[in-house]
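Field log, afternoon session.

UNIT: design team B
ACTIVITY: writing a sequence onto a fixed backbone
BACKBONE:
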Protein backbone atom coordinates (compact mmCIF):
# COMPACT_ATOMS: atom_id res chain seq x y z
CA UNK A 1 0.00 0.00 0.00
CA UNK A 2 1.28 3.39 -0.94
CA UNK A 3 1.20 6.44 1.27
CA UNK A 4 -1.01 9.22 0.02
CA UNK A 5 0.55 11.88 -2.10
CA UNK A 6 2.10 14.71 -0.21
CA UNK A 7 2.58 12.74 2.98
CA UNK A 8 5.82 13.09 4.81
CA UNK A 9 6.40 9.42 5.06
CA UNK A 10 9.45 8.58 3.14
CA UNK A 11 9.70 5.67 0.93
CA UNK A 12 13.12 4.85 2.21
CA UNK A 13 13.14 1.78 4.28
CA UNK A 14 13.85 2.37 7.94
CA UNK A 15 17.44 1.99 8.86
CA UNK A 16 18.43 -0.11 11.72
CA UNK A 17 21.63 -0.09 13.65
CA UNK A 18 23.82 -3.11 13.16
CA UNK A 19 23.60 -5.66 15.99
CA UNK A 20 27.23 -5.07 16.95
CA UNK A 21 26.42 -1.51 17.89
CA UNK A 22 23.55 -2.37 20.18
CA UNK A 23 24.20 -2.10 23.91
CA UNK A 24 24.46 -5.49 25.59
CA UNK A 25 21.21 -6.90 26.82
CA UNK A 26 20.79 -6.50 30.55
CA UNK A 27 21.72 -9.67 32.43
CA UNK A 28 18.65 -11.42 33.73
CA UNK A 29 18.95 -12.12 37.42
CA UNK A 30 19.01 -15.77 38.50
CA UNK A 31 15.51 -16.88 39.37
CA UNK A 32 15.05 -17.07 43.13
CA UNK A 33 13.25 -20.08 44.55
CA UNK A 34 9.80 -19.19 45.65
CA UNK A 35 9.58 -18.37 49.33
CA UNK A 36 6.47 -20.43 49.69
CA UNK A 37 8.44 -23.67 49.28
CA UNK A 38 10.82 -22.72 52.11
CA UNK A 39 7.90 -21.80 54.36
CA UNK A 40 6.21 -25.10 53.64
CA UNK A 41 9.33 -27.07 54.46
CA UNK A 42 9.85 -25.15 57.72
CA UNK A 43 6.20 -25.61 58.68
CA UNK A 44 6.36 -29.36 58.08
CA UNK A 45 9.61 -29.69 60.06
CA UNK A 46 8.17 -27.64 62.95
CA UNK A 47 5.01 -29.76 62.96
CA UNK A 48 6.97 -33.01 63.06
CA UNK A 49 9.16 -31.72 65.91
CA UNK A 50 6.08 -30.62 67.85
CA UNK A 51 4.48 -34.05 67.44
CA UNK A 52 7.69 -35.78 68.56
CA UNK A 53 7.87 -33.57 71.65
CA UNK A 54 4.23 -34.23 72.55
CA UNK A 55 4.75 -37.96 72.04
CA UNK A 56 7.81 -37.87 74.29
CA UNK A 57 5.92 -36.02 77.02
CA UNK A 58 3.02 -38.49 76.83
CA UNK A 59 5.40 -41.47 77.00
CA UNK A 60 7.28 -40.01 79.97
CA UNK A 61 4.00 -39.39 81.78
CA UNK A 62 2.86 -42.98 81.22
CA UNK A 63 6.18 -44.38 82.47
CA UNK A 64 6.09 -42.13 85.52
CA UNK A 65 2.50 -43.11 86.32
CA UNK A 66 3.29 -46.82 86.04
CA UNK A 67 6.44 -46.48 88.15
CA UNK A 68 4.82 -44.43 90.89
CA UNK A 69 1.48 -46.24 91.17
CA UNK A 70 1.63 -49.01 93.77
CA UNK A 71 0.77 -52.52 92.59
CA UNK A 72 -2.39 -53.60 94.40
CA UNK A 73 -3.54 -56.07 91.75
CA UNK A 74 -3.96 -59.20 93.93
CA UNK A 75 -4.12 -59.92 97.68
CA UNK A 76 -0.71 -61.65 97.81
CA UNK A 77 0.97 -58.86 95.83
CA UNK A 78 -0.40 -56.16 98.15
CA UNK A 79 0.75 -58.13 101.22
CA UNK A 80 4.24 -58.60 99.77
CA UNK A 81 4.47 -54.89 98.90
CA UNK A 82 3.20 -53.93 102.34
CA UNK A 83 5.73 -56.17 104.14
CA UNK A 84 8.52 -54.77 101.93
CA UNK A 85 7.54 -51.18 102.70
CA UNK A 86 6.65 -51.56 106.37
CA UNK A 87 9.12 -54.13 107.71
CA UNK A 88 12.04 -54.33 105.26
CA UNK A 89 12.28 -50.68 104.14
CA UNK A 90 10.56 -49.21 107.22
CA UNK A 91 8.90 -46.59 105.07
CA UNK A 92 5.56 -45.67 106.66
CA UNK A 93 4.58 -43.30 103.85
CA UNK A 94 4.99 -45.96 101.18
CA UNK A 95 3.37 -48.60 103.42
CA UNK A 96 0.29 -46.38 103.88
CA UNK A 97 -0.45 -46.80 100.15
CA UNK A 98 -1.22 -50.48 100.80
CA UNK A 99 -3.53 -50.26 103.83
CA UNK A 100 -7.30 -49.91 103.94
CA UNK A 101 -8.59 -46.39 103.47
CA UNK A 102 -10.76 -46.55 106.61
CA UNK A 103 -7.78 -47.55 108.74
CA UNK A 104 -6.06 -50.83 109.38
CA UNK A 105 -5.52 -52.92 112.49
CA UNK A 106 -1.76 -53.48 112.19
CA UNK A 107 -0.76 -52.97 115.81
CA UNK A 108 0.72 -56.48 116.11
CA UNK A 109 2.96 -55.87 113.10
CA UNK A 110 3.93 -52.44 114.43
CA UNK A 111 5.00 -54.09 117.73
CA UNK A 112 7.09 -56.59 115.76
CA UNK A 113 8.86 -53.77 113.93
CA UNK A 114 9.52 -51.88 117.18
CA UNK A 115 10.98 -55.09 118.68
CA UNK A 116 13.23 -55.55 115.63
CA UNK A 117 14.53 -51.98 115.92
CA UNK A 118 15.20 -52.43 119.65
CA UNK A 119 17.10 -55.70 119.03
CA UNK A 120 19.16 -54.09 116.27
CA UNK A 121 20.23 -51.37 118.69
CA UNK A 122 20.93 -53.83 121.52
CA UNK A 123 22.99 -56.27 119.43
CA UNK A 124 24.42 -53.75 116.92
CA UNK A 125 23.25 -55.94 114.06
CA UNK A 126 20.90 -55.45 111.13
CA UNK A 127 17.89 -57.77 111.12
CA UNK A 128 16.64 -58.48 107.62
CA UNK A 129 13.09 -59.43 106.80
CA UNK A 130 11.99 -61.77 104.02
CA UNK A 131 8.79 -63.70 103.32
CA UNK A 132 7.65 -66.83 101.55
CA UNK A 133 4.87 -69.46 101.36
CA UNK A 134 1.85 -67.32 100.53
CA UNK A 135 -1.54 -68.97 101.00
CA UNK A 136 -4.55 -66.99 99.74
CA UNK A 137 -8.18 -67.70 100.69
CA UNK A 138 -10.42 -65.40 98.72
CA UNK A 139 -14.12 -64.72 99.35
CA UNK A 140 -15.47 -62.09 96.94
CA UNK A 141 -14.03 -58.66 97.78
CA UNK A 142 -12.03 -59.88 100.77
CA UNK A 143 -9.20 -62.35 101.14
CA UNK A 144 -7.01 -63.80 103.89
CA UNK A 145 -3.34 -64.19 103.10
CA UNK A 146 -1.08 -66.33 105.26
CA UNK A 147 2.65 -65.85 104.88
CA UNK A 148 5.84 -66.93 106.61
CA UNK A 149 8.00 -64.01 107.77
CA UNK A 150 11.66 -64.87 108.11
CA UNK A 151 13.70 -62.62 110.38
CA UNK A 152 17.46 -63.09 109.94
CA UNK A 153 20.50 -61.58 111.58
CA UNK A 154 24.23 -62.16 111.76
CA UNK A 155 25.32 -61.67 115.40
CA UNK A 156 28.84 -62.35 116.74
CA UNK A 157 29.69 -64.40 113.66
CA UNK A 158 26.61 -66.59 114.03
CA UNK A 159 23.70 -66.54 111.57
CA UNK A 160 20.34 -66.63 113.32
CA UNK A 161 16.83 -66.69 111.91
CA UNK A 162 13.26 -66.91 113.15
CA UNK A 163 10.25 -68.03 111.07
CA UNK A 164 6.84 -66.65 112.01
CA UNK A 165 3.46 -67.35 110.39
CA UNK A 166 1.34 -64.23 109.90
CA UNK A 167 -2.21 -63.72 108.63
CA UNK A 168 -3.24 -60.61 106.72
CA UNK A 169 -6.85 -59.66 106.00
CA UNK A 170 -7.19 -57.80 102.72
CA UNK A 171 -10.11 -56.08 101.04
CA UNK A 172 -10.82 -54.78 97.55
CA UNK A 173 -10.89 -50.95 97.85
CA UNK A 174 -9.65 -49.36 94.63
CA UNK A 175 -7.22 -52.27 94.42
CA UNK A 176 -6.43 -54.74 97.18
CA UNK A 177 -5.43 -53.34 100.57
CA UNK A 178 -4.26 -54.72 103.91
CA UNK A 179 -6.85 -54.17 106.65
CA UNK A 180 -5.52 -56.36 109.46
CA UNK A 181 -2.29 -58.16 110.36
CA UNK A 182 -1.89 -60.69 113.15
CA UNK A 183 0.45 -63.51 114.04
CA UNK A 184 -1.17 -66.90 113.53
Amino acid sequence: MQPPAGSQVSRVPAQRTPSEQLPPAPATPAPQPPRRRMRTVLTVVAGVLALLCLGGVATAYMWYTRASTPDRSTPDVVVANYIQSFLADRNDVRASEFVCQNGADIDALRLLREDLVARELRFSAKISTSWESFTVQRQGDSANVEVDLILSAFVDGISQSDRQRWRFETRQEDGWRVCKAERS
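LOG NOTE: DSSP finds four helices and four strands in the chain.
NEXT ACTIVITY: expression trials, pending approval
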